[in-house]
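Q: What would this chain look like folded?
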Amino acid sequence: MITTFRGKRITGVLGVLPENEYDYDIETKPFQTTHTKRLKRIMGYGKRRAAKSTTTTSDLCVFGMDYILEQKWINKDEIGAIIAVTISPDHYVPHVSNIIHGKFDLPHDIVCLDLPQACAGYVLGLMQAFMLLEHMPDKKVLLFTGDVLCRKEPETPLAYPVFGGDGASVSIIENDEASPDIYMNVYNDGAHRDMLIIPAGGFRLPRSPETGVLVDIGDGTMRTKNCMWMDGSSVFNFVQREVPPLINELVEYSGKEMDQIDWFLFHQPNKFMLQKLADKLKVPYEKMPMNVVGDFGNSNSNTVPFAMASNLADKLKDQTFSCCMSGFGAGLTWAAAILTLGNMNFCELIISDL
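A: My prediction, written as C-alpha cells:
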C-alpha cells in the first residue's frame, strides 16, 4: 500500500520513561564474555529503562496523559479518538484505549482503538489517526504507544541478557489544511511471522510453569516461551533487503530527493542495523539518530517518538524539517512515512515514578 494524506500534522510528542535505569555491563556481568562485550560495541547497547514489576502499559500512558492535561496542551472536549499501540496490554479485555478513556472520564463520543503492533507500530498508528481525522474535522487524535515487556524490580537478577526497554509515548495529531502532504507505504509478509514470536501467552499456548522454563533456542541462546524469540540473522537480512527499497519507493513517490530529507527517524533495534541501513541508503549517520537503543533500550513502537523527543525536542518546537519515519520487524511488517515535522506545541521526554 502506498498513499497520500493531506491536511494533517503532529502537534505534540511526549515520551514517558520508567524511573528504573539499568546498565548493560552490570546486568550482563553474570554472563559477560567476549561475545557480550562485542555486542555492546557493535550493537550500541548501553543503558535501558524497565518498568517496575507491577507497572502496566496503561499506567505509563495515564502518567503521560496526566502530564499533558496538567500542561493544558489539550482539552478533554477536543479529543475525538484514542489509539493505543501495544503488544503488552493490561488485559485481553478491556483494551488499553478504553482504560485511558475511563481513567479520565472522557466524553462517550470518543473512538477507542487498540492496535496490537510492535516495531512498525508508531507509523501504523499515525496512519490510523490520519484516517480517523478524515471523519472528525474539529477533533484531535491521541496516539499512545507503550510496552512493558521487560518490567522487573532492581534487585531481581536477570536469567539471561536482555536488551529491550519499557516506556510509552503520547502524540497529538490534528487537522491542519496548511500542512504539507504526508506520504506513507506499508508492506507485510505473514509467511515469515515466526521470525519474531512470543510463543506462549495466547490461546494457542497459554502460559504455564512449563512455558517459563529456559530452553536453548539456537546458538546457545536461552529463552523461555514467555519471552520474545527472534531469528536474529534472518531478521537482519529481512530489514536490509526490504527497508531500503521501501524508503526509495516512498522518496520517489513523494517527488523529493533523498538529500532533501533532513532526518531519518527509524525504529532502533540496534545501532549496527541502523548503520547498515544508512550505508545502503547513502544517508549520513548524523541524519539518522541511533542513540535510543543505547540510552533506553529497544522499546518497540516507542523508539520513533523517543528519537524525536530525545534528539529534536528543541528544534521541533520552532523549526520545521522534512522527515522520513520507518518501522520494521514483527509481522513481518515494514512501513514508512515522509512528512513535515515542526512548530510543535511540545516535544519532551519525561521520567515517571513507575
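The two ends are 38 Å apart (CA to CA).
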